[in-house]
Amino acid sequence: MTTTELYVIRHGKTMFNALQRAQGWCDTPLTSKGAQDIHYLGLGLRDTQFVEAISSDPGRAIETMRLVLGENRAKPKPPYSVDSRLREWCWGSLEGGYDSEMWGVLPRVLDFKTSEQMWDTDITFEDIANAVMKADTAHWAEPYEQIRGRVLSGIEDFAYRIEKNGGGKGIVVSHGFTIAFLLNLLDPNQPVRVDLQNGSVTRLSYHDGNFTIEEIGSTAFIEAGREISTNLLS
């Protein structure tokens, strides 16, 4: 049986990413630069044979996957489906506000005077989920256990399906905070992080129900694709 490996990609940069606005279940399209970087990512991955592809269901994730698979030269093209379990966290009534406002409100809910104080502590994803629930006046935000259940089941079902069918490489497009959360679920030593770049690749291996983190937030495929593009134009 071939090793099962997942390439988990954060979607390309969107309008709200560029404007530094909170974007969870709300959606905006990729910027022209965001699409260009994903084009480079696709070039960097163009000879990688993927056996299956999956993304979350917002347009930004679907657009990202479309661009990546559009550059892939391996045959046959992998079957592609969408799964809402791989969505970003829902920020409730904080959606669409500036990031600085959201990360200003949440520390106060958690009894910190500043966001810097919050990040200097061992803040957990569960703490943040509970704070979002308290701050969300629309009551749209998800309880921690609900987020945990959907993210884990979404990625586990995908990896298990690939392994059951003989293994190989799977490609996933999801979201920055969801990927960071997934890493923490797989390894509790992984911190709460907001530093995964758009288009970055996090690689996981999977065997018999267990994940191993192989690489986090690599932009090497984007850089490789940029070099390929330059060579094609020269």
Question: Helices, strands, pairings?
Answer:
Elements: E1 4-10, H1 15-19, H2 32-44, E2 50-55, H3 59-71, E3 80-82, H4 99-109, H5 115-119, H6 125-135, H7 144-164, E4 168-174, H8 176-186, E5 201-207, E6 210-218, H9 220-233
Parallel strand pairs: 1-4, 2-3, 2-4
Antiparallel strand pairs: 1-5, 5-6
Helix pairs in contact: 2-3, 2-9, 4-6
State the total count of DSSP E strands. 6
Mean pLDDT: 96
Going across the major beta sheet, what is the strand order? 3-2-4-1-5-6
Q: What is the rounded distance between the termini? A: 42 Å
Strand content: 15-25%
- What is the N-to-C succession of helices and strands? EHHEHEHHHHEHEEH
Low-confidence stretches: none
Shape: globular
What is the number of helical segments per DSSP (H or I, 4+ residues)? Answer: 9
The helix/strand class is alpha/beta
Percent range of helical residues: 40-55%
**What is the CA-atom radius of gyration, in angstroms?**
18 Å
**Major sheet: size, sense and barrel closure?**
6 strands, mixed
How does this model look, in words?
The protein has 234 residues and is α/β, with parallel strands linked by helices. Helix content is 44%, strand content 17%. The protein is built from nine helices and six strands; from the N terminus they run E-H-H-E-H-E-H-H-H-H-E-H-E-E-H. It has a six-stranded mixed sheet with strand order 3-2-4-1-5-6. Helix 4 crosses helix 6 (125-135).
